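Reviewers of the previous submission asked for a worked example of the structure-prediction workflow described in the proposal, so we include one complete record here. The input consisted solely of the amino acid sequence. No template or homolog information was supplied to the procedure at any stage.
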Amino acid sequence: MPEAPALSEAPAHADVAALPFEKAMAELETIVARLERGDVPLEESLTIYARGEALKAHCEQLLRAAEAKIEKITLSADGRPKGAEPLDVDR
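From that input alone, the workflow returned the following structure tokens.
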């Protein structure tokens, strides 16, 4: 009977949590491009796909956190917008 994968494989992408959004997104884009080309061996494809999933989840979490901060900044305590001015794109 084949052995189950070691539980130590789960934190293999623990470094992802420390990446800033821009670096995580750039690495994710590189992984997607490599997988789309189709020239990556199967085992490596599985490994980089798993890393891509970790990067995607990290980017989504960072975006949700940024969105929450923006909502906190732009809304008053009662949930109404605080004196926001429309964006003047001509400036």
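Confidence is low (pLDDT under 50) at residues 1-10. We consider this example representative of the routine output the project will generate in years two and three.
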